[in-house]
Amino acid sequence: MLRTSTEVMREFLTLHHQHERHKMNTLEITREATEHEKKFCKDSAFYTWDASEHTHTATVTFGERTIRIFTDGEMRIHLWESKEARERGDSPEVIRYSDGLVENGIDTDTKLHQADHDERIEWINNSWFDLYAYGEGIEDGWLNSVQHDLDEAILQASALIEDDEFWKEVK
Fold first, then answer.
1. H-run or E-run covering 109
2. Taking the model in full, what pTM does it have?
3. Of 27, 80, 151, 153, which cross-links 129 as Cys (Cβ 3.0–4.6 Å)?
4. Which residues, including other chains, have CB under 8 Å from residue 127's CB and lie 6 or more apart?
5. For residues 93 and 101, what is the distance between their CA atoms, to the nearest angstrom?
6. Which of 152, 158, 120, 151 is nearest to 37 (CA)?
7. pLDDT, tens digit, for every residue of 16-66?
8. In this structure, is the dihedral angle defined by the CA atoms of residues 76, 67, 40 and 34, taken in order, positive or negative?
9. Longest dimension (CA), the chain
């Protein structure tokens, strides 16, 4: 399995930003990922572990504000050994979770995109990252901000969490 208790580490990136009221707030980004995942696995397909509920993947906090990033959606990929096997009508390997990709030699974004480019993959369902705001006064924190790359989701959450006008609309 890709994740083990000894491989998983917490990543804390801290940047300091000056708040409008001249108070110092800290932008903190927290995610659990192996070194391999941090370097080579940004696609949501590598963070899909359960089809029945969304999986918490990262958290961005800024003062009292929190945005959590979840891997949402059901993944179903049909994978063939080759384009020719697909064209012959061979039965595909059905992949529903991240470990199925790794078991089939697809353990990086590059390999995933290459398999797709080589027409070895048929995407039936795909997962995605979605952002949710949490905090006092927030009833429905779904931000309707869908990303397929974890770094892009973190950047989007970081921009939104510091935007005072946007945050007023969330509450």
1. helix 109-117
2. 0.81
3. 153
4. 44, 45, 47, 48, 71, 72, 73, 74, 75
5. 10
6. 151
7. 333 343 356 789 999 988 889 989 999 999 999 877 668 899 999 998 899
8. negative
9. 66
